[in-house]
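Q: Could you write out the predicted structure for this multi-component system? I'm mainly interested in how the pieces pack against one another.
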Amino acid sequence: MPLAPPESENGTIQDNSGCQNTIGYVIDLNPADGGAGCWLDLGAPHMNRNGLMHGGIMAILLDVACGYAASLSFDVKTLAPVLTVSLNMHYVASVADGRVLAIGQVTGGGRKICYATGELRDTKGRLIASAAGVFKRINQRPAS
Amino acid sequence: MPLAPPESENGTIQDNSGCQNTIGYVIDLNPADGGAGCWLDLGAPHMNRNGLMHGGIMAILLDVACGYAASLSFDVKTLAPVLTVSLNMHYVASVADGRVLAIGQVTGGGRKICYATGELRDTKGRLIASAAGVFKRINQRPAS
Amino acid sequence: MPLAPPESENGTIQDNSGCQNTIGYVIDLNPADGGAGCWLDLGAPHMNRNGLMHGGIMAILLDVACGYAASLSFDVKTLAPVLTVSLNMHYVASVADGRVLAIGQVTGGGRKICYATGELRDTKGRLIASAAGVFKRINQRPAS
Amino acid sequence: MPLAPPESENGTIQDNSGCQNTIGYVIDLNPADGGAGCWLDLGAPHMNRNGLMHGGIMAILLDVACGYAASLSFDVKTLAPVLTVSLNMHYVASVADGRVLAIGQVTGGGRKICYATGELRDTKGRLIASAAGVFKRINQRPAS
């Protein structure tokens, strides 16, 4: 399994992990405002028991967007592998359909540790959830 | 869509939402130590690009376990619907296969707000991730 | 003890609580970019055992800035009293002297719950710490 | 300024930093249930504008308790200096007087990173606030 993902010509990543295939999100390494993006077209597989987008799926999208932003900040060429140390989620509004887009941005850090924040919005720009995460650069796949 | 989930005779819940079907976790409303549980048998659909369980999937399991613990604390009979206000995740260790079990416990709260913490462990009892969440009781499905 | 603080002519608040007197911060209800501000001139009383600004003091400044931003968003005239439900802190850089300024901004919420984020910077604009908080409007001083 | 604090015969630490002198808390390196403790006798200097213990002061006590628990876990003899990477606070109940005690416990980590959780309780054992923090071992006082 490659540590650096297969990057398509337009800077998006698909089919890069089992989780990505399961949920169906698309990674965008070149969003308009910098950082990294992750979008998803909502459907029944993403809903909770109340018929709304599951908060855990929101966490996946924001973890991915913030994690790739961290990865790019460490090494834009090789997409340095990172581990999520912590992730804090705020669930601001609910959403039931349409496309949602997470954007992650790096706010600081050093050689090994990276701080990032992210926002998940619907197509109208409404804030659905926000996240703040700490990521750690790793040299290789850690032992399980 | 029923707000109260279909509960089987042995206190476990399956097929209760699109998200649950997508990920494949099972909810346990009567874990040995109280609170609420959520377990998952890991497979390729739950892995990240490094071949380890995706942190976002961990967030789903802990959100579900803590959320059902909150729901039970508000009303054990009807499983009062709740929204996640915030969820903080700590990723303590990685895991690549086997069964993982999340247990959520309520630590406090009032009429509308509930505080819960949760732990995700593998079958050897090793701590994989921990969570702290705030949940809000809602009367009905909120407008999207 | 008044629930609404004594506001000076220029929109700053001092001597409003025992904690404020102990730490010595000044609240600014009209910062340039909106929200609410809280600044402090650092000295020996704010240092940890390593001679750097204590992370807990950073938490106080960001809790105050985000809390007043929430309070203003509920009712700008009476400064509606609020309780902090949760606060997540990221410690991005260290600082040992000079003035630090926390700015809190509201990102969403409803009738009772308010989400806010905040940033603490030094006089050069360097990010020292960031915060994400959930606040709850209360009608009066809660029973202890 | 010594990186290792002056430890008294009974395992408590006082007068170890400007912040500690300002707030007046006492550090206990040998609490009954393990980890590290930090207690404070509440007075007017610790109150917010509603006459209740300020959430930021709670953050200080829990940051100290969790940080010393992390420090002890790295090196019990030299009390290895650590930095707080992130701290998540849950404010479960309010308190206005008496003694409050924070206990921090380590839940996991590696060579450099340590995860800890903490609880703040009053003398009746009531949970006032809980915390989850990430700490990083440092070799020396970082450059400011």
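A: Regarding packing and overall arrangement: Chain D is about 20% helix and 35% strand.
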